[in-house]
TrEMBL record:
Keywords attached to this entry: ATP-binding, DNA damage, DNA recombination, DNA repair, DNA-binding, Helicase, Hydrolase, Isomerase, Nucleotide-binding
UniProt domain Helicase C-terminal: residue ranges: 450-611
Domain annotation Helicase ATP-binding: ranges: 266-427
Catalytic activity: ATP + H2O = ADP + phosphate + H(+); Couples ATP hydrolysis with the unwinding of duplex DNA by translocating in the 3'-5' direction
Keyword DNA damage among record annotations: yes
GO MF annotation list: 3'-5' DNA helicase activity; ATP binding; DNA binding; hydrolase activity
Function: Plays a critical role in recombination and DNA repair. Helps process Holliday junction intermediates to mature products by catalyzing branch migration. Has replication fork regression activity, unwinds stalled or blocked replication forks to make a HJ that can be resolved. Has a DNA unwinding activity characteristic of a DNA helicase with 3'-5' polarity.
Biological source species: Tetragenococcus koreensis
UniProt EC number: 5.6.2.4
Name by which UniProt lists this protein: ATP-dependent DNA helicase RecG
Classification via Pfam families: DEAD (PF00270), Helicase_C (PF00271), RecG_dom3_C (PF19833), RecG_wedge (PF17191)
Alphabetical list of PROSITE patterns matching this protein: HELICASE_ATP_BIND_1, HELICASE_CTER
């Protein structure tokens, strides 16, 4: 019943249902688990104990009639006087004239607001109802279409009508082991706690539940995909792979050797490989990918490398061709802009096994693309290779091993736990001789000096990136900013240097032409939005100028910084920013103090939280309602261990103790067949 539509609740018609859906509330359970992000302390206080500018609840008697004064469009002030004991003070509500009817002379009233001790006045925020439950008022993320009070009223209605249908979904043994509150009581106390301790206990329960249910799905997936029936053995030619690595134009680092061995060990197992390869910007993940692909080819399998952008696909293909062509390993490129005739030819060659390694975007797993003998799929950066894509390949008759690569350095324990169905390999060592990028933070007023220094680099034959400020959710403004900056810099550097422009609204061919011109040094200064963020490799670029750097997260700034420092010359990253607060200043300082992506990532997690750092939709990291994978990392670890222990029990789904858990997972996770 909790999975029923929100429209089953009285007072929720089509229009309100849409407004709630915009908040992510579609079912009754969504509503009941739409928890507050904070609580206001609304217990009544005496005037004598209140501090200046404190937010408090004051109860008293209305001693003057309410008066509404209007000024300007939709602006008003509701005023009246109140008395507590013998103290009389004034009360004002701004832009809430409709509250006038709730203010009645000689009647008691309780108001939550901000106290001004000097003026002996209360700026009201809300009038509290007579039936206020507890000393804490929940505050939710709401919208213009859904007010706080509307949401509170709906949640109360939902508990009144559906509360008895909230069934326990954790086994009794775990509840007793960790002294967890019952599910129904915890959900109610998350909204309407009687005191801080009750809220603490409710949150403990809800956080554990979220993590445990998530880990049950993850560990189930891991068990299913690691089972021998889903795996393939890639019996690669050890001698040929050794010879290949020895002939590379550089020596592998110890970390690269270690992770290559981990991948090769997986190949020889009859279980399905699911491995996450993490490595900081410039640590050499692509070479490891090349060795893995070559190993698969020596065993008679085909390999596929999926990347987020066409520019990156072309770049990877170029790198692989240099390594593979002398060995007669046949490669191909398949993206959405591949011409139909060429596309058809590539698809036929893949089906016939004439292509060994194909590089491309998500086009690789679309309908109509079939392989002769696919053994390894490597996905780079934003392409989280999800359950459905893996299932799609299996339905085509393939059980490929999967390697997921990311340059977003997630702290190891977090990676192991959040990407629970994957084994984790980390390249934690940089290639020898790589010069760390020098990062400087300057204010906008110092920009002319930075441009003069950049000009000296250009005169020495180097190149430069200029990254435009990012405007939230507005590609049009992004482009506008980029064009304006491009025009300014074109005038500044003319006629000595050529300035190019790259942004997200350009056609693929235009982007490719600009990037090619930059690679060939026909363009010396490239003004760009963040389309150059991931993986683009131009060793001659030594200066990176990021405008309004405080608009970016630390992890993103670090990714951008990785575009320079790829050659043998000293490189510079200039952050142009006038942060408005201490947090912004702290972030700029962190960037100037370390080049270590794992430290940057950890700081970003601490300062901003995982949602903003990773962008859940891109990274595949889970999004939780009450739990926080950083602050509650220890609970996540415990939940993972408990889920692993349970999946090791034979036929746990049939045991009476787990009936509630199994029923809940089956109802809420229909896409995973292991709960059928």
């Amino acid at each position: 019943m909790l999975q029923e539509s929100i429209t089953k609740l009285a007072g929720v018609g089509e229009k309100r249902a849409q407004a709630l859906a915009d908040l992510g509330i579609v079912t009754i359970e969504n509503l009941l688990s739409y928890y507050p992000f904070r609580y206001d302390d609304i217990k009544e206080r005496n005037l004598a104990e209140i501090n200046d500018q404190e937010k408090v609840t004051i109860k008293g008697i209305v001693v003057s009639p309410p008066v509404v004064n209007r000024f300007g469009y939709k602006k008003s002030r509701l005023q009246f006087r109140m008395m507590q004991d013998r103290d009389v003070f004034s009360v004002s509500f701004f832009n809430q004239p409709y509250l006038k009817d709730k203010v009645v002379v000689s009647e008691d009233i309780a108001i939550y607001g901000k106290w001004d001790a000097k003026r002996k006045a209360l700026t009201g925020m809300k009038i509290l109802g007579a039936k206020q439950e507890g000393d804490f008022a929940p505050i939710y993320h709401v919208s213009k279409a859904v007010r706080q009070q509307t949401l509170v009223d709906l949640i109360r209605k939902a508990f009144a009508r559906f509360g008895d249908q909230i069934e326990e979904n954790l086994p009794l043994s775990l509840m007793e082991k960790y002294r967890l509150m019952g599910r129904k009581d915890a959900m109610y106390a998350m909204h309407f706690p009687q005191d801080p301790d009750q809220h603490h206990q409710a949150k403990r329960r809800v956080v554990f539940e979220e993590f445990f249910l998530f880990q049950m799905k993850i560990q189930g997936l891991k068990k299913e995909e690691k089972s021998e029936k889903h795996g393939i053995v890639i019996s690669y030619d050890v001698e040929r792979v050794k010879e290949f690595t020895q002939k590379l134009p550089f020596k592998l680092t110890g970390a690269q050797k270690r992770v290559t061995n981990e991948i090769c060990r997986d190949f020889l197992q009859p279980k399905h490989m699911q491995r996450l390869l993490q490595g900081d910007v410039g640590s050499g993940k692509t070479v490891v990918a090349a060795i893995a692909l070559y190993a698969a080819v020596t065993a008679g399998f085909q390999g596929a490398l999926m990347v987020p952008t066409e520019i990156l696909a072309q770049q990877h293909l170029g790198s692989l061709q240099q390594l593979f062509d002398p060995l007669e390993v046949h490669t191909a490129l398949l993206t959405s802009s591949t011409k139909s005739k060429e596309r058809q030819q590539i698809i036929e060659q893949l089906q016939q096994g004439e292509i060994d390694v194909v590089v491309g975007t998500h086009s690789l797993i679309q309908e109509g693309v079939d392989f002769s003998n696919l053994g390894l799929v490597i996905t780079d950066e934003q392409h989280r290779f999800g359950v459905n894509q893996r299932r799609g390949l299996r339905e085509k008759g393939f059980q490929p091993d999967v390697l997921f690569m990311t340059a977003t350095p997630i702290p190891r324990t977090l990676a192991i736990t959040a990407y629970g169905e994957m084994d984790v390999s980390i390249i934690d060592e940089m290639p020898a001789g790589r010069i760390p990028v020098e990062t400087r933070w300057i204010k906008r007023g110092q920009l002319s000096d930075a441009l003069k220094n950049a000009q000296l680099e250009l005169q020495n034959g180097r190149q430069m990136y200029v990254i435009c400020p990012l405007i939230e959710e507005s590609e049009t403004l992004d482009v506008q900013n980029a064009v304006e900056l491009y025009e300014e810099l074109k005038n500044y550097f003319a006629p000595e240097f050529v300035v190019g422009l790259l942004h997200g609204k350009m056609k693929s061919e235009e982007k490719e032409a600009i990037m090619e011109g930059f690679k060939e040094n026909e363009i010396q200064v490239l003004v760009s939005t963040t389309v150059i963020e991931v993986g683009v490799d131009v060793p001659n670029a030594t200066t990176l100028l990021i405008m309004d750097a405080d608009r970016f997260g630390l992890a993103q700034l670090h990714q951008l910084r990785g575009r320079v420092g790829r050659g043998q010359e000293a490189s510079y990253c200039i952050l142009v920013a006038n942060p408005k607060n201490e947090l912004g200043k702290e972030r700029m300082k962190i960037m100037t103090e370390t080049n270590n992506g794992f430290i940057v990532s950890q700081k970003d997690l601490e300062l901003r939280g995982p949602g903003e750092v990773f962008g859940f939709k891109q990274s595949g990291l889970p999004e939780f309602v009450a739990a926080d994978i950083v602050a509650d990392a220890n609970v996540l670890e415990v939940a993972k261990d408990e889920a692993q222990n349970l999946w090791q029990k034979k036929d746990w789904q049939l045991l009476p103790e787990y009936a509630g858990l199994f029923s809940y997972l089956k109802e809420t996770d229909k896409e995973n067949q292991f709960f059928d």
